[in-house]
Amino acid sequence: MMQQLLTLFQSVSILLFGYFIPALSSVKAVVHKDIEAYHQWSTYWLILHLYTTILSPFLHLTLHPLFQLLAILWLSLPRYQGAAVVYDRIVVPWVNKYEEQVDDTIDVAHRGARRWVLAKLKTIIWAVMGEGGSLVDVLIQGVIGSTIIATDHSNVTDAQNKNHSVKASNPPRHSVKEALSHGSSSFDDLSINDDQSFDENMVQDFMSMLAHGLYVFANVEKVAINGEPERSIFEGGFKLGVFSFDEGDKRFNITPAGRDPQQEQSIERLYVNDLTRLAAFGPQSLLLECSKTTGELIIRAEIVLSDENDRDVLLNGLRQCLPIVKDEKMRL
Question: CA nearest 242: which of 107, 136, 110, 104?
Fold first, then answer.
C-alpha cells in the first residue's frame, strides 16, 4: 500500500512541478512580457524536451521517478535554474562546435527528402497519365491551357484553327514505346546499347513520333558567357512539358503542357546544329546541351521520361536519326 501511494505521489509531483507549474509560469511570462522569465522557461522546455525525446528513448537514460522529481525541481525552480546551467554549459558549447555540421546535415536531409517526394510524385503522375490516356490530354488542355486559349482567341486565324484540330487528333504521347507501337516499323527491345541500324521507314516513324511530341518533365538552364541570359520558363525545377521536333527549323522544342505551340515566347528551342551533348543522365533522364556557334550562350535541358527503358529507346533513336536529320535532303 505504501509503495502504491509513493508511486502515485511521485507521478502527481512530476506532473505538477514538471509540466503544470512551468506551463502556467510560461504563460505569465508571455502575457507580462517578462524577458528574463521567458528565457528561463524557454530553456527549461528545451532541456526537458531533449531528455524526453532523445536521451530517454535512444540512450535508455531513464531515471527512477524519485530522481526524476529531484531533477525536475532542480531544473525548474527559480532558486536553482538548473535548466539555464545545462543550457549554458552543455547545449551552447555543443551548438557552437557542431553548428555548421548540423546545418549541412539538415540541408542534405531536406534535399534528399525533396528529391524522394518529387520522384514519387513523378511516378504517380506517369502512372495516372498512362492509365488516363486521352482523358489526361483533355484535362491538360482544358485546365492548364484554358486561360491561354481564352486570352488569345481573338488572334487565332483559320489556319491556326486547322492546326489545332490536327494537334487534337494527334496529341502528345506519354511513352516512347507506346507512341512507336502505332508506326509501321518494329522497335522491339531497342535500348541504349543496341547497334540496330534504322532504315528509312524506321527513321520516318521515329521522327514522326517526335513531331507529335512526348510528355516529359523538363528543367532548362541557360548560361551566358557575357551578360545575363533570358530566364527559361523551365528554370528552377522540373515542370511538365511537351518535347517535340520541328522538321522545318531542324530543332527540338520544349513547350509547357497546355501552352499554345504557336506562342514562340513559351518555347525552349534546341537546334540540331547547335547540339554538343546528348547523353543519359540519372535513372530516367536525358541531357541535351546546345552551344551557339559564337559560344556566348549554352543551353542545358534535362528531360525526364516515364521510365529508364523509355529513356534508352529515345536516346538510341536520336543517335541513329540525328545524322540523317542534319541532311538537308531529309523530309518527313
Answer: 136
Q: What is the pLDDT of residues 166-216, one digit of tens each?
A: 444 467 787 787 777 766 655 555 554 455 566 777 778 888 888 888 888
pTM: 0.52
CA distance 148 to 164: 14
Position 153 confidence tier, pLDDT thresholds 50, 70, 90? very low
The predicted pLDDT at position 260 comes to 61
CA angle 97, 98, 103 (to 5 degrees): 140
Please state, in angstroms and rounded to a whole number, the distance separating the CA atoms of residues 258 and 48.
Answer: 53
- Could you give the residue ranges of the DSSP H alpha helices within 133-247? 134-139, 146-151, 158-169, 176-180, 200-212
End-to-end CA distance of the chain: 95
Residue 75 identity: L
Which residues lie below 8 Å from residue 271, measured CB to CB, with a gap of 6+? 249, 250, 251, 252, 290
Rounded CA separation 183/198 (Å): 14
Give dist(CA 126, CA 122) in Å, integer: 6
Rounded to the nearest 10 degrees, the angle between the axes of helix 308-325 and helix 200-212 is 110
Contact between 303 and 218 (Cβ < 8 Å): yes
> Does 163 have pLDDT greater than 80?
no
Closest CA to 288 of 194, 218, 192: 218
What residues does 269 pair with on adjacent strands?
253
Copy the grid coordinates of residue 221. Answer: 538552364
- Of 174, 265, 276, 164, whose CA–CA distance to 215 is shortest? 174
Q: What grid cell was written down for 56?
A: 530517454
The C-alpha atoms of residue 184 and residue 176 are separated, in whole angstroms, by 15
Residues 113, 124: Cα–Cα separation, whole Å:
17
CB under 8 Å, gap of 24 or more: what pairs does 89-96 form?
Answer: 91/46, 91/47, 91/50
Query: From the CA atom positions of the chain, what is the Rg in Å?
Result: 32
8 A C-beta contact, residue 249 and residue 221: no
